Structure formats: structure tokens, C-alpha cells
Amino acid sequence: MGCHFRHISILLKRSPEEAIGWYEQRIYVEKDRDAKKIMKHAQQEEFIHFAMDLEFLLRKKKDWRLVVKNILFKEGDIIENAEKAEDKAEVE
Q1: Rounded to an integer, what distance in angstroms lies between the CA atom of residue 25 and that of residue 75?
Q2: Taking the model in full, what pTM does it have?
Q3: In sequence order, which residues have a C-beta less than 8 Å from that of residue 68 and are 6 or more positions away?
Q4: What is the DSSP secondary structure assignment for residue 72, as one 8-state letter?
Q5: pLDDT for 4
């Protein structure tokens, strides 16, 4: 994967992530029920885009996939799981 392509992919991942946070803030303070409902729907769409972008990157980057695989959906302390995942990645 070329440097330019990787940079674009990382920017794509960041954009939905930022939008999710923006919607979270707006939903929290919004008083209008209909506006809140629309924003929740838009936030869900951004989450879907984020998930697709992340999946794309993880399919292309074996080392990233290994680390993420050992953190997500695991029981226990998140930070401990991340440290173990990092250690596994360094060994392989």
C-alpha cells in the first residue's frame, strides 16, 4: 500500500471518528426531539463508515490487524489487553 494511499486511508478513518464525537456533543445538548433523532441516525451512519474504513485498513495491514484482534471484544482490562497485544506484535 503506497504512502499516499495510506495517508488518505488514515484521514478517512479520522473523519467519521470526529463526526461521531461531534454528533455525540450535539445530541447531548439538543432539546428538539426530532433534531435529536435525525442526529442519532446521522451518527449511526458515521459509525458504519468508521467501521468499514477500519476493516479496510485491517485487511491491508497485518500487524495492525494482529494488535486490534487481541484488544477488541476481549474480556478483562482494556489497557492490559492492549499491552499484551503490543507484546504479541513485537514477538511476531
Answers
A1: 29
A2: 0.67
A3: 54, 58, 85
A4: T
A5: 46
